[in-house]
Design goal:
Number of strands: 7
Helix content: 55-70%
Mean pLDDT: 88
Strand order of the largest sheet: 2-3-4-1-5
Largest sheet: 5 strands, parallel
């Protein structure tokens, strides 16, 4: 039975949303009548949490789902289009501008996009929204921002703080109906109960808790910071500290505080006294942690923070203390335990970091750490830890992007080249060729000095050009790279040059010349080097060129050699390509059962690395193997799962003309065997299945090729 399809990537709620019934209803109404709705309000008022709940309620109304786009880690507005593509899992392989790719993908779909934290990128978000809403009539955008985007069709929901208990506890401000039912008090006491086992509201603490809510103006972030501190002191003492802080407000953090709305002052006050209650080491850690964006792990924190003032051995304890005090959030992920800091608290830490005169030093440490991590991943990519490095690098993506943006903003082209070149596997293997090209083009323009960094940057840029089908650029860069490494003693550079030239010629439609370039180097892999992965890429290209030339036995031999070396090294990504090429060659040689087995193995490997292009191609060849042996219904279902994957890439017709033609022939043969009605039923059943479930089904379905059985004649 087909499972229910789930489309979207909305993050799960980690905390209960308190109150906001009126605002939730109002936001839903606005989204029903307007194509752009912005939830606006001061930092810490709960815009993100409200938008997440609204989007979850609206998701069933959108046939193609609700998608969360995290914009807070971006420092450069040019990254907005890439963040959209990343959220939508688009892996377009053309040279078109990424916003155009996103627009084409959305044009015929019913989608809700949630853009979280737009205030620092308002101009770029406004332009992107105007473009997308023009070409995609089924698109709705729900944004969160401290200030509106400013489009004429935008409707704005101004989010105020939560209602607070009235003085004396006889009612609630902002429309509440009783001291204990005031949403601010419900939030505060609920968070305290989470932090302090056995906590209850009593006659002795009720009035002080209510006064604390009033003092903090019902601002959710301020209340959560207060709840963390009530673990260590009674509400009466905390209220006194707040009174004292109000008396000095305006002399340290900012000017003209008196002109701000009261909850602006409440937020500064809550953050300020939370900062004051931290130990000196915690304050320093808070300031230094502000250089991170998105999430980060404890090792990264230690590498960037630690020095003689802040010993590395203290960092784990400091992280735990900052989580305990709600300055940091603990985030479990596939890559392990990680941490993140809310934008408002990060801004405060950055203010103090500048005051300490350490901003430049810490940003350099941040850059150097992520450069070292990228280089370590590059060196270990073709090996048994590849999956671990994949998860680590994807988790670090926001910080890697931030480091690159900082290098380019400071016109440090050399560091940008080193980092972007080391990340070749992120751009090429993990599905971000557009973004890689964006950074590499800028870095190469900034740093024109010859040397290893520029050579690696040229090679990596050539890879992205091949991935994007930019044949002219790939051929040009192949020649430039060969000249750049002409005197190189690293033997892996010879393989890198041969691969880049051969792959560029193959993409250019010149297989004979491609084969000549690829065969000009030994078949045995080099013993390491800066371009250790080049031999594996070269072998895959060599097998593919043989297949395109109709030399299927040669393609099979090369692919088997590739798979064997990958197995010896414990590598996954290139081994899956080797298995795909083995499937393709075996199918053409008339070994359909063998082809299906290799295709399934390839699909499993590509799934582990979330390689959408590889998964789609593996599903296509698996369907071809099925239909060749007369299993037309299985072929139809497999084609439908493959089409779902192709759709995540923007179109079901991606791929080389030869592969598109093979897919079309597979569909036509399945229709002949089943009849149009039965084919459509089988295809629709597969397409109606959740994508993950469909891939699992393709990997675990009963083997339709029993050992020793002869495949039926599909033309009989």
């Amino acid at each position: 039975m087909a499972g229910e399809r789930r489309v979207g990537n909305l993050p799960e709620e980690t905390d209960c949303l308190v109150g906001r019934r009126t605002e939730l209803a109002q936001a839903a109404r606005l989204c029903g009548r307007s194509r752009l709705v912005t939830v606006s309000g001061v930092g810490g008022v709960g815009k993100t949490r409200l938008a997440r709940r609204v989007a979850a309620g609206l998701q069933p109304q959108f046939a193609d789902g609700a998608w969360w786009v995290e914009l807070s880690p971006l420092s450069d507005g040019s990254g907005v289009a890439y963040a959209l593509a990343e959220a939508l899992a688009l892996a377009d392989q053309t040279t078109r501008p990424m916003l155009e790719v996103v627009a084409e993908y959305l044009a015929g779909r019913e989608v809700l996009l949630v853009w979280d934290t737009c205030e620092h990128l308002v101009e770029d978000c406004r332009q992107a929204a105007a473009t997308l809403l023009t070409v995609a009539p089924g698109l709705r955008i729900l944004a969160t921002s401290r200030r509106p985007l400013g489009l004429h069709l935008e409707e704005v929901l101004d989010l105020d703080p939560l209602p607070v208990p009235e003085t004396g506890g006889g009612g609630s401000g902002h429309g509440g109906s009783g001291a204990e039912s005031a949403d601010a008090l419900v939030l505060l006491t609920g968070r305290v109960a989470q932090a302090v086992p056995g906590f209850t509201v009593t006659d002795a603490n009720r009035s002080e808790l209510a006064a604390l809510c009033r003092r903090l103006e019902g601002l959710p972030l301020a209340l959560e910071l207060a709840a963390a501190r009530l673990r260590d002191m009674p509400a009466a003492e905390l209220n006194k500290r707040l009174d004292d802080r109000y008396a000095i407000l305006g002399n340290t953090e900012t000017e003209d505080c008196a002109a701000d709305p009261p909850w602006h002052q409440a937020l500064r006050t809550a953050i300020g006294w939370s900062h004051e209650l931290c130990t000196p080491a915690e304050r320093l850690a808070w300031a230094r942690l502000s250089v991170f964006v998105g999430t980060f792990d404890a090792e990264s924190a230690s590498r960037v923070l630690a020095d003689e003032r802040l010993p590395a051995r203290e960092v784990p304890h400091l992280l735990s203390g900052l989580v305990r005090d709600s300055i940091l959030q603990w985030v479990p992920t596939a890559a392990g335990e990680r941490y993140r800091m809310l934008d408002t608290l990060r801004d405060y830490g950055a203010f103090w970091l500048r005051g300490l005169g350490e901003e430049g030093t810490l940003r350099r440490r941040h850059r150097d750490h992520y450069l070292a991590r990228a280089q370590a991943a590059d060196a270990a990519w073709i090996g048994p830890e590849q999956l671990t490095w994949y998860e680590q690098t994807v988790a670090d993506h926001a910080n890697l992007r931030s480091a690159l943006d900082r290098c380019l903003a400071e016109r440090d082209g050399h560091s940008a080249l080193e980092l972007a070149g080391a990340l070749w596997f992120l751009w090429y293997a993990c599905g971000f060729p557009h973004e890689g090209r964006h950074y590499l083009d800028r870095a190469l323009a900034l740093d024109t000095a010859p040397g290893p960094a520029r050579a690696k940057g040229l090679w990596t840029c050539g890879q992205t050009a091949i991935n994007l089908g930019d044949t002219e650029t790939s051929l040009r860069l192949a020649g430039v790279f060969r000249a750049a490494v002409a005197g190189e003693t690293d033997e892996s550079a010879v393989f890198a040059a041969a691969y880049l030239e051969g792959a560029a010629l193959a993409v250019h439609g010149r297989p004979a010349q491609a084969a000549q370039a690829l065969e000009a180097v030994p078949h045995t892999p080099p013993g390491g080097g800066r371009y250790d992965a080049a031999w594996f890429l070269l072998q895959a290209t060599r097998a593919f060129v043989h297949a395109l030339s109709g030399q299927f036995a040669d393609a099979l031999a090369v692919a088997e050699e590739l798979s064997a070396e990958c197995a010896r090294r414990g590598e996954t990504w290139m081994r899956a390509w080797g298995d795909y090429l083995r499937a393709l060659a075996a199918l053409k040689l008339g070994h359909a059962a063998e082809a299906a087995a290799h295709a399934r193995t390839a699909l499993g490997g590509k799934r582990r690395l979330h390689d959408s292009v590889g998964m789609a191609m593996s599903l296509d060849v698996l369907a071809c193997a099925y239909v060749t042996c007369g299993h037309a219904e299985l072929a139809a279902r497999t084609l439908s799962i493959g089409e779902q994957v192709w759709h995540t890439l923007g179109t079901p017709q991606m791929g080389s003309p030869e592969l598109v033609a093979a897919r079309t022939a597979c569909e036509q043969q399945a229709r002949r065997l089943l009849g149009n009605g039965a084919y459509e039923a089988a295809f629709d059943a597969g397409y109606g299945t959740d994508l993950n479930s469909g891939i699992t089904e393709a990997l675990t379905a009963s083997d339709p090729f029993p050992p020793g059985s002869a495949p039926p004649d599909p033309t009989a």
